[in-house]
Amino acid sequence: MNLYFRLETPADYRAVEELTREAFWAFWEPNRKICDEHLLVHRLRLAPSFVPELDFVAETDGKIVGHIIYTKSKIIDEAGREHETLTFGPLSVLPEYQNRGIGKALMRHSFIRATELGFRAVIIFGHPDYYPRAGFRRAAEFGITTQDGKNYDPFMAYPLYEGALNGIRGRYFIDPVHEQLTQEDALEFDRRFQPKKPFIPTPISVLLDHLEPEAREAMEGIICPSLEMMTSKSEREISSLPGMDRQSVEVIRSVLHEHGIIWGEGKSRHE
Q1: Fewer CB within 10 Å, N- or C-terminus of the chain?
Q2: How far is CA 229 from each of CA 15, 118, 172, 187, 216, rounded to the nearest angstrom?
Q3: Cβ–Cβ under 8 Å, residues 267 and 130
Q4: Whole-angstrom Cα distance, residue 88 to residue 54?
Q5: Do 212 and 71 meet the contact criterion of CB atoms below 8 Å apart?
Q6: 238: buried, middle or exposed (CB in 10 Å: 19+, 13-18, 0-12)?
Q7: What is the chain written as a DSSP string?
Q8: Check: CATH 3.30.565.10 for 4-179?
Q9: Which pLDDT value is given to residue 266?
């Protein structure tokens, strides 16, 4: 498969939003009736933080099969100094083209351009076992926390050059547009597209029924109402739970795989 990367143009907007909708339709987040990533892409293009020089599509045989979009973000240190960074997302690949390395290729291509533009690092919230294989590390390793001072495995950083984050510690802030999406807005925006059958998450009980009592009790102690939401939990995090052994971790991996969910050392929908 030959991939061609180019900047998104206004003529691509509809196709990219449809692509993003398809890629994220099977959402894992609780309390959502519908995915909102296609609405987010729509709004990010209008945000002051949007970086048009990093708004890339991936094409093969003249068809757009992947997309990555960037906004500026920042780290504020204890002295109140601001250090500009980037965040990307949504990163989308059409379902029928997933698991072919398109997501990683889009990252590599855009990282090169971001470095040329003078940016120091990319910080994201994403799949905690997929992105480390692309070079990301937990933000905690750099002394970077979320805006409210917390840290968890899906919060990750990628220095664009050696030493890019040396001496920079603090809280991370993204454009508020990422946090201003409502389900009402998403449902209204989705009416512009062809009707699609709602996605129904798989209850976590499907997994719990396969686990031994100690492992089951450990899993019941985490907030994870669906199998799909397990993609927000790293294998490291689950393996460290009291009562969780290697056999139980393999059972989790197997059950999720049976339901089409790649977890842990496997691949994600973005590859």
Answers
A1: N
A2: 27, 35, 24, 21, 16
A3: yes
A4: 9
A5: no
A6: buried
A7: ---EEEE--GGGHHHHHHHHHHHHSS---TT-SS--HHHHHHHHTTSTTB-GGG-EEEEETTEEEEEEEEEEEEEE-TT--EEEEEEEEEEEE-GGGTTSSHHHHHHHHHHHHHHHTT--EEEEE--TTTGGGGT-EEGGGGTEE-TTS---TTEEEEESSTTTTTT--EEEE--GGGG---HHHHHHHHTTS---PPP-PPBTHHHHTTS-HHHHHHHHTS---BSGGGGGS-HHHHHTSTT--HHHHHHHHHHHHHTT---TTS--TT-
A8: no
A9: 52
pLDDT at position 198: 87
Q: Which whole-number Å values give the CA distances from 17 to 42, 44, 201, 257, in the listed order?
A: 7, 12, 22, 28
Measure the CA–CA gap between 87 and 73, rounded to whole angstroms: 6
CA–CA distance, 267 with 146 (Å, rounded to integer): 26
pTM for the model stands at 0.92
Q: Please list the pLDDT of the chain residue by residue as tens digits (271 residues).
A: 899 999 999 999 999 999 999 999 987 676 788 899 999 999 999 999 999 999 999 999 999 999 999 999 999 999 999 999 999 999 999 999 998 999 999 999 999 999 999 999 999 999 999 999 999 999 999 999 999 999 999 999 999 999 999 999 999 999 999 999 999 999 999 999 999 998 888 999 999 999 999 999 999 998 888 998 998 999 999 999 999 999 999 999 999 999 988 888 654 444 4
